[in-house]
Design brief:
single chain, about 160 residues, alpha/beta, five-stranded parallel β-sheet, two-stranded antiparallel sheet, about 25% strand
Length: about 160
């Protein structure tokens, strides 16, 4: 069971890399990508203990070859509105801000970090998600930077890329 985690600032290209790796690994076995956007609990508490707990459960279940039930967040209603069972696969890819935090690294994940200039990252996010997220992005960048510094994510990822 292979566990991959792709992390870096918003707009860095994590989802794109996850799709490329998914395609590559799918030719050799079963693959599942979990996007952390589906696991965050909204804008203000996304990178907190709840996310760490979910990632711990996901990583532990994957390594044990067991299914894991997770709640998915609906950004329209701003609430968790459904559950999904993440079945065991040969490769599990976690992608998003916070994906390669220490709990996932300690589970033996192969970790990727993607750098991006802050203004380019914001521009990409706005192009992808629309201007509706613009009011939240400044604080998000502050919150992600605090998380990365506290967790030493970039310093501890095995592979470092620049987009």
């Amino acid at each position: 069971m292979t566990l991959l985690a792709i992390d870096g600032p918003a707009g860095a290209g994590k989802t794109t890399l996850a799709a490329q790796l998914e395609k590559e690994f799918a030719s050799k076995g079963s693959v599942r990508v979990v996007h952390l956007d589906d696991l965050y609990s909204g804008w203000t508490t996304a990178l907190g203990n709840d996310l760490t707990e979910v990632l711990d459960r996901l990583a532990s279940a994957h390594i044990a070859g067991q299914p894991c039930t997770v709640k998915f967040f609906n950004w329209i209603s701003m609430s968790f509105d459904r559950e999904e069972i993440i079945e065991p696969t040969d490769v599990l890819i976690l992608e998003g801000v916070g994906a390669a935090q220490v709990i996932v690294r300690d589970a033996g994940a192969i970790t990727y970090w993607i750098d991006v200039e802050p203004q380019i990252g914001i521009q990409r996010v706005l192009e992808r998600d629309g201007s509706v997220v613009e009011p939240y992005m400044h604080q998000w960048q502050i919150d992600q930077d605090k998380h990365f510094a506290r967790d030493e994510t970039r310093e501890n990822c095995e592979f470092k890329l620049t987009s």
